[in-house]
Amino acid sequence: MLVQLRHVDTHQGGLWEFPGGKVDPGEGSVDALAREWREELGVEVLDAKPLTRVTHDYGDRIIDLEVFEMRSVRGSPRSLEGQATQWVEAAALGALPMPAADLPVVQALVKAKTAGSPGSG
User: Fold this and answer.
1) Alpha carbon distances (Å) from 75 to 24, 41, 72, 85
2) Selected residue with higher pLDDT from 117 and 76
3) Cα dihedral: 79, 82, 87, 92 (round 10)
4) 8 Å CB contact between 26 and 13
5) How many angstroms separate the CA atoms of 47 and 68, rounded?
6) Model-level pTM?
7) Whole-angstrom Cα distance, residue 29 to residue 35?
8) What HEC string does the chain produce?
């Protein structure tokens, strides 16, 4: 799984997160995803499928995450906005400090990877 370290001067700064961003007015979710990955990581999203949706109330703001699984991209992801970026095995995501809104996403990813493993039923 690809994760990035949030800039320390942002909400939830200093925590690891999944790449993405806000949907602009008049923009669809998949279009926003493609734009964010192009701007932040320099790759073209060729195929993505919905994984899960999470709404989380931080008290000072409510976050609505629409999460996609990248099935195919063109290019090699690299940080274009100065954030540390790393690949992490799904099972190791729980060891990273992440925003509370991302924790259900981690659970969904681990469940999806486990369900796709041979012999997992």
Assistant:
1) 24, 9, 10, 15
2) 76
3) -150
4) no
5) 10
6) 0.84
7) 10
8) CEEEECCCCCCCCCCEECCCCCCCCCCCHHHHHHHHHHHHHCCEEEEEEEEEEEEEECCCCEEEEEEEEEEEEECCCCCCCCCCEEECCHHHHHHCCCCHHHHHHHHHHHHHHHHCCCCCC
